[in-house]
Design a protein that fits this description.
- The chain is mainly alpha-helical.
- It has a single domain (16-468), classed as Up-down Bundle (Growth Hormone, Chain: A).
- The protein has helices at 3-8, 28-50, 56-63, 67-74, 76-95, 98-116, 122-136, 139-150, 153-187, 201-210, 213-220, 248-256, 259-291, 295-326, 332-350, 357-371, 374-385, 391-421, 428-468; strands at residues 19-20, 190-193, 197-200, 232-236, 239-242.
- A three-stranded antiparallel beta sheet has the order 1-4-5, with no helix packed on it. Strands 2-3 form a two-stranded antiparallel ribbon.
- Residues 1-22 and 232-243 have low confidence and may be disordered.
Length: 469
């Protein structure tokens, strides 16, 4: 066959054994560099997401909104778009450049965060928050998949735990920055900015935290797109190419074959997430209303506790899971996540009801430590349980579930209990108590149930791989 005939001939699959990509991982030093940049991006995503939590008072005052409307800005307006856009963006992470997806996403949500500083009406701020949600939906499915291809299984939980630290570093910095802004606002209420004009001091913070994210997007251009480990290939017309990524229907069918594991994992972590988001959204208000702390002091104290205790719990959980897995516990990710949920209970039951603000803070610290564990381990479990070409979409479904339930409902559940059930804005401590205990008990039961199915899902993956890889 001559050159022209070869170019014009239709593609014909050659009957030969599938070819499997060699699992050679990048150098550890470079892999950790990638994790560092992805973690930095995650930090900025949580700063931009959580910055509203300490600005409740001035935003309510200037926009003339109540508890429920504020909770919608904190949660649902962001969460709905974050979760629904996460599914197609998760598929894109399985089919397109994950690096490119992350870079575009960071740039978009950073601009939308800065745009929050231009808003003067409730609906304008809600629209800007929706845009932040769309941009942030691009990050984690792609990041989970990237990290899984940079690290072998025995070190993956630790790497994902380090990435997950971004939740608590970002939330901590959001509290600290919010506290500083509140202190600044007590001295100077209005600020004149070039091109923008006169804005309120709380609006300035959105420019401060949003625009630097564009620099992070540029830094992410320095990383390489790694080979997809274990990717299945076919020989087609003497050219080896990667088989098309499974459709969402195929991913759903695979997960349905392991429904016991994934239902318990996703819903269990979602309930822990409901408690976490509900608490983090209203914890500053709890200290201000119940214990008489100033907003500035609350932001600084909570920011340090969230940053230190949350990151310590995230890394400890990942290290403990890797240690257990090296000793034969293949279900270590789920087992340690369950440990964190159960260990939270005594501290979470006490901090809302003690009479001293400093005693409450002392109890919040270990509660933050243990509550952070599941959020690094659940993504590690998904990477362990899913074929490579399905990981991005499986992660997107996971983020859809936990954020729609946790971020979408958590802040609103606490606000509804305070406003409609207890009918007293100073009863926020009771709302936190009821929300936290109920959610964590449900989470513990679901994760415990999931242990029964976990090994079956690992066996399912091995059998699936023999046929499909």
């Amino acid at each position: 066959m001559n050159q022209l005939e070869m170019e014009c001939a239709p593609e014909v699959e050659i009957e030969s054994a599938p070819e499997v990509a060699t699992e050679v991982y990048p150098a550890p030093r470079y892999a950790w560099y990638v994790v560092a940049l992805l973690t930095l991006a995650y930090v900025f995503s949580f700063i931009d997401r959580q910055i509203l939590n300490l600005l409740v008072g001035p935003i309510q005052r200037d926009l003339g909104i109540g508890e429920k409307q504020m909770s919608l800005l904190m949660g649902l307006s962001f969460a709905v778009f974050y979760t629904f856009f996460g599914i197609p963006l998760g598929r894109l992470a399985d089919t397109w450049s994950r690096r490119g997806l992350v870079v575009l996403g960071i740039a978009f949500w950073s601009l939308m965060t800065a745009g929050c500083g231009l808003t003067r009406r409730f609906w304008q701020l809600a629209l800007a928050r929706m845009g932040v949600g769309v941009g942030e939906a691009s990050l984690s499915p792609a990041a989970y998949s990237l990290i899984a291809d940079y690290f072998p299984p025995e070190r993956r939980s630790t790497a994902l735990g380090v990435y997950g630290m971004g939740i608590y570093i970002g939330s901590g910095l959001a509290n600290i920055l919010g506290g500083l802004v509140i202190k600044f606002a007590s001295v100077q209420e209005n600020v004149i900015l070039p091109l923008v004009g006169t804005v309120r001091s709380w609006q300035v913070v959105f420019f401060i935290v949003g625009l630097p994210g564009l620099l992070v997007a540029l830094l992410l251009l320095t990383i390489r797109e790694p080979a997809r480990q274990g990717a299945r290939r076919k020989a087609v017309a003497n050219v080896s190419r990667v088989v098309a990524v499974p459709s969402l229907g195929e991913v759903w069918a695979y997960m349905s074959g392991n429904r016991g594991t994934f239902l318990c994992l996703y819903l269990g972590v979602a309930m822990a997430c409901l408690s976490s988001y509900g608490v983090s959204s209203w914890l500053p208000t709890f200290f201000i209303r119940r214990h008489g702390w100033t907003a500035g002091d609350t932001g600084l104290v909570l920011g340090l506790m969230v940053g230190i205790c949350g990151t310590a719990g995230m890394v400890t959980g990942g290290r403990l899971a890797d240690w257990l897995r090296a000793r034969g516990r293949s279900d270590a990710n789920l087992r340690v996540a369950l440990l964190g949920v159960v260990a939270w209970l005594p501290f979470g039951a006490l901090y809302p009801i003690v009479s001293s603000g400093w005693w409450a803070a002392a109890l919040v610290a270990p509660a933050l430590f243990f509550s952070s564990m599941p959020f690094g381990l659940a993504p590690a479990a998904i990477q362990q349980l899913m074929p490579n070409t399905m990981r991005g979409q499986a992660s997107a479904i996971y983020l859809f579930v936990i954020n729609l339930i946790g971020l979408g409902l958590g802040p609103t559940v606490v606000a509804t209990l305070t406003q409609d059930v207890f009918q007293d804005k100073n009863a926020v401590h009771l709302s936190l108590l009821v929300t936290g205990l109920t959610a964590h008990v449900c989470a513990a039961g679901l994760l415990w149930r999931g242990l029964k199915h976990y090994h079956q899902s690992l066996d399912y993956l091995r059998e699936w791989s023999k046929v499909n890889v």
